[in-house]
Amino acid sequence: MISRRAFLAASTALAARPTWAVSPQAFAPAQIVDLARDLSTRAYRPRPNIPQDWIDLTYEQYRLIWPRPDAALWHGTDSPYEVDFFHPGLYFPQGVRIEAIEQGQAQPVPFSLDGFDRTDQWPTDLTMDDTLGFSGLRLRTELDQPGKRNEFCVFQGASYFRAIGIGDIYGLSARGIALRTGDPAGEEFPDFTRFWLERPAEGQNHMVLHALLNGPSLTGAYRFEIHPGQPCVMEVEATLFPRVDLDHVGLGPLTSMFLFDQTNRHRFDDFRPAVHDSDGLLMQNGAGEVIWRPLANPKTLQISAFMDENPRGFGLMQRARKLGDFADLEALYHLRPGLWVEPKEGWGKGSVSLVEIPADKEIYDNIVAYWRPADPIEAGSEHKMSYRLSWGSDELVDHGLPRVLNTAMGEHVFATGRLAVIDFEAHPMFDDGPEAITVHTQSPHADTTDGVLQRNPETGGLRLAFAFDPKDRDVVELRAQLRKDGQLASEVWLYRWTA
After folding, report:
1. DSSP H or E run through 6
2. 326: which residues sit within 8 A by CB, 6+ positions away?
3. Distance between CA 272 and CA 270 in Å, rounded?
4. What pLDDT does residue 111 have?
5. What long-range pairs does 471-478 form, CB within 8 A, spacing at least 24?
6. What pLDDT is attached to residue 22?
7. What is the C-alpha end-to-end distance of the chain, expressed in Å?
8. pLDDT at res. 416
9. In terms of domains, do 451 and 375 share one?
10. Per-residue pLDDT, 1
């Protein structure tokens, strides 16, 4: 299980002295690909750890130092973007190298403690040596407040990064690659070890960032073209160079948190009706079918694979958008963004994989989703891919069908078995009333009732309730969909009930 505090620690930063040459060098993006290719031919060597006293910082100490806004990269220039840098220590035991690109020249970014403010509680006797470096970076620009440059994107920890649309707050994350997620032998977390930041010109509405990935099993060269807004859109290009055969690799991986909602509320003694950064996995497969799979927090590790060829997209979404859905005035889960992954070329045969890890606290990211190719990516090969990431609270996929808004589960009070209740949003397809809609429910493991479809006066949409009897089964797969005049009238709803 991944600790949210380990990879999504509070935004603080530190500068330290340079640990490499600072003379500028000519830069071209192809150099990063060449660097990754060459690195893959050599045995993996991890970066050295920073001094132990930095790693031993407490969480409270780690937060006692922060960047001065006037010391940000490109502050006071005509560039519309500024960059803050994060300090190492605590959950970040290794430094990364960062370089700024201006007029075709790569200039390593030096750091100095003079660029940072800290309280008088900050330790003054920490070791300073050549292993120190940044742990990540934060991007800021003018969004919806004229004259104020707000953050919208963070890269920090392994190959993790996260972004928000205007009006959102940080929630789920993406990463460069996922390796062996959920495998008994353990997961591998390659690192972004170097970043190159292209200085945006005056008036430019996007920013370009390059990254070098390195880990025991592979290297990679990444290019991110980032467009802030609502949603925040990233165009991603990557070239991977495996050192070994990658037989369990996750492309476009997403990581989120789901603790409870109306499907498992009874397991948690909590004043809130729900706690989650995302509540469902949305998929649009190669055939155009739209599938909604509500997330779960199972009692044992649960892995689902949705077979497909050339998927049109997949993503983790947050459809609960009212404060009352969570009643949390601090976490504000209703403002967490969804994230949609859209391949820009055919990804071939494979599956959208969903890993759901048991969690007892909201500090853990226990949900992972990614595309798993059917065939291994072979050692010594060169694998290119490109895709678009859209982060936002608005609906990120326009598929034209009524969406699933909510799923609830409970004991069937007046009969044996369980009751599933699904709310669909208001939609013109429902204007003729529930009588014009036919219900299709099925399960390979249990008998399902025909279901009752009613108008929900609160949402304006339709509510479907049907029963199923798992008997002595521990797992029951369920499927439901609405149709009108023989045509699709809703997303496909899939669910895995577990005892």
Report:
1. helix 4-7
2. 272, 273, 274, 275, 320, 332, 333, 334
3. 5
4. 63
5. 471/446, 473/445, 473/446, 473/499, 474/498, 474/499, 475/445, 475/499, 476/443, 476/445, 476/446, 477/443, 477/444, 477/445, 478/420, 478/441, 478/442, 478/443, 478/448
6. 59
7. 22
8. 83
9. no
10. 45
How is residue 439 annotated by DSSP? Answer: E
Whole-angstrom distance, CA of residue 198 vs CA of residue 195: 10
Question: How many angstroms separate the CA atoms of 418 and 264, rounded?
Answer: 13
Q: What stretches in the chain show pLDDT beneath 50?
A: 1-21
Q: How distant, in Å, are the alpha carbons of 19, 44, 136, 192 from that of 221?
A: 23, 16, 17, 9
Q: What is the pLDDT of residues 195-212, one digit of tens each?
A: 999 999 999 999 999 999
Distance of CA 336 to the CA centre of its chain: 11
- From 392, 421, 444, the end of a domain falls on 392
Concatenating the DSSP letter of every residue in 158-200 gives TTEEEE--TT-----EEES-EESTT-TT--B--EEEEEEEEPP
Place of tokens 């009006």: 167
- Cα dihedral across residues 14, 11, 153, 356: positive or negative: positive
H or E stretch at 406: strand 404-411
User: In CATH, what number is assigned to the domain containing residue 328?
Assistant: 2.70.98.10
Whether residues 353 and 299 share a domain: the answer is: yes
Give residue 284's pLDDT. Answer: 97
Residue 175: Cβ within 10 Å count? 24
Report the domain count for the chain: 2
Query: Where in the sequence is the domain holding 208, given as residue range(s)?
Result: 2-392
